[in-house]
Design brief:
127 residues; mainly alpha; two-stranded antiparallel sheet
Length: 127
């Protein structure tokens, strides 16, 4: 984990996003313990309250939960919740921006589709 204080994005959101990504990629599988606020704050040299604020975002989204006296754990179903969240954000974060840029470049729908298909082909190419 790392944070960049120079970004416009608040540090607690950077922490929440990195933890969420670690859960999504199964670095922290469902029903396993994640590092404590103190461990993360020591690792990143930041205030534990900042880490807790980021973790609380994930608690509110039902991605992690607290076991009293034991710490924070990844909630069962967290990966699917994250997947659904990311799928719903996909259009606004990627597709809308792609269409705006393609429009500026005077690209047709067919040209965009061909580029997307090429991207899928490149992804599956073992070279």
């Amino acid at each position: 984990m790392h944070v960049n204080p120079d970004l416009d994005k608040p540090i607690f959101i950077q922490i929440a996003e990195q933890l969420e990504d670690s859960i999504f990629t199964k670095v922290f599988p469902e029903e396993t313990k994640i590092p404590s606020t103190n461990e993360i704050s020591a690792l990143l040299s930041i205030n534990p309250h900042t880490v807790l604020k980021g973790m609380n975002l994930l608690v509110d989204e039902e991605i992690i939960y607290k076991k009293r006296g034991l710490g924070m754990f990844v909630k069962e179903g967290a990966v699917e919740r994250i997947r659904k969240k990311r799928q719903s954000q996909f259009y606004s974060q990627y597709i809308a921006a792609l269409i705006r840029e393609a429009s500026k470049l005077q690209m047709t729908k067919k040209e965009i589709i061909l580029l997307i298909e090429r991207g899928f082909e490149d992804e599956s190419d073992p070279d």
